[in-house]
From TrEMBL:
<feature type="compositionally biased region" description="Low complexity">
    <location>
        <begin position="40"/>
        <end position="58"/>
    </location>
</feature>
<protein>
    <submittedName>
        <fullName>Uncharacterized protein</fullName>
    </submittedName>
</protein>
<feature type="region of interest" description="Disordered">
    <location>
        <begin position="26"/>
        <end position="58"/>
    </location>
</feature>
<feature type="region of interest" description="Disordered">
    <location>
        <begin position="522"/>
        <end position="547"/>
    </location>
</feature>
<dbReference type="Pfam" id="PF04885">
    <property type="entry name" value="Stig1"/>
</dbReference>
<dbReference type="InterPro" id="IPR036514">
    <property type="entry name" value="SGNH_hydro_sf"/>
</dbReference>
<keyword id="KW-0732">Signal</keyword>
<dbReference type="InterPro" id="IPR006969">
    <property type="entry name" value="Stig-like"/>
</dbReference>
<feature type="signal peptide">
    <location>
        <begin position="1"/>
        <end position="21"/>
    </location>
</feature>
<feature type="compositionally biased region" description="Gly residues">
    <location>
        <begin position="26"/>
        <end position="37"/>
    </location>
</feature>
Length: 566
């Protein structure tokens, strides 16, 4: 069959098409089909583009900067389904930003840890990514701003107590010089700290044999001794106790030497001048401002100022230590708390006038514990002492009761007892006047009753509470009593610790009488000696580990108290 020549029009079309799309001439000259078209997507889904001669690049026929993916033109820089390449989707909630999957934040927010945050308000990223505020502290305007407690000040981003913060003493950025503690908002640059001691016979060491005959530190007395008097005060000598035939160990050495030792352990020195001016057997009325003993104390202050100045040593009266109360018990003084408040206030005003100091002059005292030796079952005085401290918690401090100490005659302490008591004064003195911190004895702070169960919550210097019958003999119910006006108050059937700071009293029945009260170490048998085995006492103490210089335990024992049950 003859072959017909192609139609002329077909030849024209074939020549015009040349190497048409979808065909290729291989090295054998034969056609190849099935491959991608130039400028179209590759077999792997990556876009391809053909360059031009000055014309915009295209990808599969898509104008730049778009590219062809799955037959569609897409923006690989911003398409979350094809981010940086075809079929590269971003995760839920993420945007495609410059070819990378990420979080898209609005104005005022930035990305921190993969989330949009407001650096002005976010407490986990306050002012910068990862800059977290303390728990409970708000982020305001990019700064951590805590809600400061009463008595605190906001300095920068921290709450501080300007009364005892050495970096912010009395105000923000008011830094104390090195070695000067901040006490009551004032930097204390004192070299010689005067401790005035007053009261009656327990303050002068009556009956207490001397047990502190050496001075291990730099503490001093006047040249006339601890019981210095008001005349002939011409110099200082090492602080040691002396016996004058009836008086010996005072609280001075126990207090001064323990403070010095504890501060030495911190790498600091604390030098105390101790002088006593009390008189045995005298009530407040015979010791207050306007009396000879009070004037003697001020004479000791005057001598301290002059001698320290002559030596070029900075000086201040730091405190008055009182050991007192027995004579006011005998006299039935119903206003003893007010007397203590006036006593402290008078000392502070007169001392400041003599020394020019602005530092306060707080009063430290111990509770009377020996009223049974005066024929009484109870006494008002310990409660008055506690009331004065509660009325002025910044000026009057109860260091504790005295029922734990050894007595010579039921009223006066032994030499060890007096030195031991002095170490209790040291603990409170150091906390208040060296550390600049509040001091509270182990005392009740809240009492509640539900049915036949009374719970007493305590301010505990060093939890947990302990009921100790080894150091103090149990007087019954560990010293606790429950009373009311019925005349037949239900008995206590159990006394138990209810946590680190509470004691639970279980009564035999629900009380029905009025004026319900909880009492502790408040009752003793008339005629009995004070002390840990007889007299008014109790078994409740804390767990204070403060070391004694002489092997005494320095636990804080619960104060004598008689408190209402709401």
């Amino acid at each position: 069959m003859p072959v017909r020549a192609p139609h002329p029009l077909v030849l024209v079309l074939l020549c015009a098409c040349g190497g048409g799309a979808g065909t290729n001439t291989g090295g054998t000259g034969g056609p190849t089909t099935g491959g991608p078209s130039p400028g179209g997507p590759t077999a792997t889904g990556e876009p391809t583009s053909t360059g031009g001669t000055g014309e915009p690049a295209t990808s599969g026929g898509c104008p730049a900067p778009l590219a062809a993916c799955a037959g569609a033109c897409v923006d690989l820089d911003h398409d979350p389904a094809h981010c940086g390449g075809c079929d590269r989707p971003c995760g839920p909630g993420l945007a495609c930003l410059e070819g990378q999957c990420g979080v898209a934040c609005g104005d005022g927010s930035v990305v921190c840890d993969g989330a949009c945050v407001d650096l002005d308000l976010d407490p986990a990223h306050c002012g910068g990514c990862g800059r977290a505020c303390d728990p409970g502290v708000a982020c305001i305007a990019g700064a951590c701003v805590p809600d400061c407690a009463a008595g605190q000040a906001l300095c920068g981003e921290a709450c501080v107590d300007p009364s005892n913060d050495e970096a912010h003493c009395g105000g923000c950025e008011a830094t104390c010089p090195a070695g000067q503690p901040c006490v009551h908002g004032e930097c204390v640059g004192v070299g010689l700290h005067h401790l005035l001691i007053s009261g009656q016979s327990l303050s002068t060491g009556s009956g207490a044999l001397v047990v502190s005959a050496e001075q291990p530190y730099q503490n001093v007395s006047f040249n006339t001794g601890v019981r210095a008097g008001g005349a002939g005060l011409t110099g200082f000598i090492p602080l040691v106790e002396t016996w004058n035939g009836s008086e010996g160990e005072t609280i001075a050495s126990g207090a001064a030497n323990l403070v010095a030792e504890l501060e030495q352990a911190r790498g600091r020195a604390h030098r105390i001048l101790a002088s006593a001016h009390g008189v045995g057997g005298q009530p407040y009325a015979a010791l207050k401002k306007g009396t000879v003993p009070y004037a003697t104390g001020l004479a000791q202050v005057t001598a301290g100022v002059m001698l320290a100045a002559a030596m070029g040593e900075s000086y201040a009266v730091r405190a008055v230590a009182i050991v007192h109360g027995e004579s006011d018990h005998l006299g039935g003084n119903l206003a003893y708390a007010e007397d203590l408040l006036a006593w402290q206030s008078d000392y502070e005003a007169d001392v400041r006038a003599l020394t020019g100091q602005t530092l306060p002059v707080p009063m430290f005292l111990c509770q009377m514990s020996s009223w049974t030796m005066y024929g009484s079952a109870v006494s008002r005085i310990p409660g008055e002492q506690l009331a004065a401290a509660r009325a002025r918690p910044d000026r009057i401090f109860v260091v504790g009761p005295k029922y734990i100490f050894p007595y010579v005659d039921g009223v006066h302490l032994t030499g060890d007892g007096s030195r031991w008591l002095g170490e209790y004064y040291a603990k409170a003195y150091r906390r208040v006047l060296v550390d600049g911190l509040p001091w509270q004895p182990l005392a009740p702070r809240a009492i509640t009753r539900e049915g036949a169960v009374v719970t007493v919550d305590f301010a505990v210097p060093t939890p947990p509470l302990v009921l100790d019958t080894a150091l103090v003999v149990d007087p019954g119910n560990f010293g606790f009593e429950f009373t009311d006006s019925s005349g037949a108050a239900p008995a206590i059937t159990e006394v138990a610790l209810a946590g680190d700071t509470s004691v639970r009293l279980t009564l035999a029945a629900v009380p029905v009488g009025g004026n319900q009260r909880v009492r502790y170490a408040a009752t003793g048998a008339p005629g009995q000696s004070a002390g840990p085995t007889t007299g008014a006492r109790g078994n409740l103490r804390d767990s204070d580990p403060t070391p004694s210089r002489h092997g005494y335990t320095l636990y804080n024992w619960a104060v004598h108290f008689d408190e209402p049950v709401p």
